[in-house]
């Protein structure tokens, strides 16, 4: 099991997941790195869209699958959105500006970062999104490093986020310097359910 702090929440839809992501935005600082993992269609890009809205970014946020990196400067702090799905080798990161960007003056969100665990910084917040049997999403937030633990702790204390601390297996979270662990070992856990769609906390 990877060391760190883990919280979780069940959301009813990708839209509710976006609203959850929006509650993270006020606590982000320049230099924060968030790694997004989960299957295709799980809602990783939608999570970034929610964060962008919370940062005050009005531009349309789309998947950077073909661009590798998309940058947004209209919000409270710059947002850098990576998608490493199409890269085959860690050496290719040099040509994308990856290393300079994650040390820059904004917050970096990295989809498919688990492909290159050796290229991740020492500390980061991982958001793993799993599709539940009922079509909802199970969102796990796992912190590695002091800054990420601080970020996750203050986010979890936000009543709108409704995250629940969990001792579930960290299967699926990235082992620093090694390969990603299997997602299959995360057992069912009791986490906070999303409020009905007409609740103020779940409407845009």
Automatic annotation (TrEMBL):
GO terms under biological process: tRNA threonylcarbamoyladenosine modification
KW rRNA-binding (keyword) present: no
Protein keywords: ATP-binding, Cytoplasm, Magnesium, Metal-binding, Nucleotide-binding, Transferase, tRNA processing
GO molecular function, a single term: ATP binding
Localization per Swiss-Prot or TrEMBL: Cytoplasm
This protein's record includes keyword Nucleotide-binding: yes
GO cellular component, one term: cytoplasm
Major localisation: cytoplasm
Annotated family: Belongs to the TsaE family.
PANTHER family: TRNA THREONYLCARBAMOYLADENOSINE BIOSYNTHESIS PROTEIN TSAE (PTHR33540)
Function: Required for the formation of a threonylcarbamoyl group on adenosine at position 37 (t(6)A37) in tRNAs that read codons beginning with adenine. Is involved in the transfer of the threonylcarbamoyl moiety of threonylcarbamoyl-AMP (TC-AMP) to the N6 group of A37, together with TsaD and TsaB. TsaE seems to play an indirect role in the t(6)A biosynthesis pathway, possibly in regulating the core enzymatic function of TsaD.
Protein name: tRNA threonylcarbamoyladenosine biosynthesis protein TsaE
Organism: Senegalimassilia anaerobia
């Amino acid at each position: 099991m990877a060391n760190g702090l883990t919280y979780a929440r069940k959301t009813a839809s990708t839209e509710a997941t976006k609203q959850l992501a929006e509650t993270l935005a006020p606590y982000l600082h320049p230099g924060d790195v968030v790694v997004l993992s989960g299957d295709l269609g799980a809602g990783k890009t939608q999570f970034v869209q929610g964060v962008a809205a919370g940062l005050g970014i009005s531009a349309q946020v789309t998947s950077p699958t073909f661009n590798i990196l998309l940058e947004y400067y209209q919000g409270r702090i710059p947002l850098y959105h990576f998608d490493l799905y199409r890269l085959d080798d860690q050496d290719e990161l040099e040509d994308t500006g990856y290393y300079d960007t994650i040390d820059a003056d904004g917050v970096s969100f990295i989809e498919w970062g688990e492909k290159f665990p050796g290229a991740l910084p020492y500390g980061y917040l991982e958001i793993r999104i799993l599709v539940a049997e009922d079509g909802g999403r199970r969102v796990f937030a796992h912190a590695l490093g002091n800054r990420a633990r601080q970020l996750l702790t203050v986010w979890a204390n936000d009543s709108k986020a409704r995250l629940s601390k969990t001792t579930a297996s960290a299967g699926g979270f990235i082992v620093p310097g090694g390969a990603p662990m299997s997602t299959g070992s995360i057992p069912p856990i009791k986490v906070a359910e999303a409020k009905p769609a007409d609740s103020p906390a779940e409407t845009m």
